[in-house]
From TrEMBL:
Entry membrane topology: Multi-pass membrane protein
Alphabetized InterPro entries for the sequence: Tetraspanin/Peripherin, Tetraspanin_animals, Tetraspanin_EC2_sf
The species this protein was found in: Capitella teleta
Top-level taxonomy: Eukaryota, Metazoa, Spiralia, Lophotrochozoa, Annelida
Source organism, top-level taxon: Eukaryota
Official protein name in the record: Tetraspanin
Length: 246
């Protein structure tokens, strides 16, 4: 019989390539689906704690979605060819298909090595792109947590961007994308907090400041206290703030 495995190695080869073949088919179907109807992405993203304006800009603001769909099609087609060659070559003892399979796998290994080299070479460019993107979200959408004479509360921003930045700065003990100077271009947050009844101008958001017990944020936010809040807000300098100008 054509597809009766005669050894364990042959069986493993068949099973492995069945997985490859099914994976490739799934990627092709998903790629076509995204090109034909991208509303599913909006529906999924709508369940995330992000505002509709942020979601729509992320989906439609760039061509990443269509590019991603084409990548899925190419990757799916590749998996189909590799899986098909290995599967039918092993099942039907086709030396030609097995040679094609071995050649493709060898090329794949070479491409993986090349991809690793490219990743190293373009590391700085990727970092620059990410820094630019993150700085843009910070400056365009961040409204910030509020603080009024000891009453510390999360932002009312429904997009989720503000809470995300606040949580990241506290947990990662950082301030901004690169350093505190990133906040100079942020225009949506109030840049002022009431401390002991006195409005205090701030150069950095309150979540850049060092907390006595960061584990209380955000579940016990009403119990959060700061090391030296006035110094932190007015100057943004260590040790009162998580800031280091590089």
């Amino acid at each position: 019989m054509c597809c009766l495995p005669q050894s364990l190695s042959k069986l493993l080869l068949i099973v492995f390539n069945v997985i490859f073949f099914v994976l490739g088919l799934g990627l092709v179907i998903l790629g076509i689906f995204l090109l034909v109807d991208d509303s599913v992405i909006l529906q999924f993203a709508g369940k995330l704690p992000l505002g509709s304006d942020v979601v729509e800009e992320g989906v439609y603001g760039t061509s990443w979605l269509s590019n991603f769909a084409y990548i899925l099609l190419v990757a799916g087609g590749f998996f189909l060819v590799v899986g098909g060659a290995g599967l039918f070559g092993a099942c039907c003892n086709s030396q030609c298909l097995l040679i094609v399979y071995a050649t493709i796998v060898t090329l794949l290994i070479i491409l993986e090595i090349a991809a690793g080299v490219v990743a190293v070479l373009f590391k700085d460019k990727v970092e620059t792109y990410l820094q630019t993107y993150l700085t843009g979200t910070l400056q365009k959408y961040y409204t910030g947590a509020t603080y009024n004479d000891g009453a510390f509360a999360l932002s009312t921003d429904t997009s989720g961007v503000s809470d995300g930045w606040d949580y990241a700065q506290i947990q990662l003990k950082c301030c901004g994308v690169s350093n505190k100077t990133d906040w100079a271009g942020a225009t949506q947050w109030p840049a002022s907090y009431n401390i002991s009844g006195v409005p205090t101008a701030a150069t950095v958001p309150i979540t850049c400041c060092v907390m006595d017990d960061p584990t209380k944020f955000p579940d016990a936010i009403s119990e959060v206290t700061f090391t030296d809040l006035s110094t932190c807000l007015s100057t943004g300098n260590d040790p009162a703030a998580h800031t280091t100008v590089s």
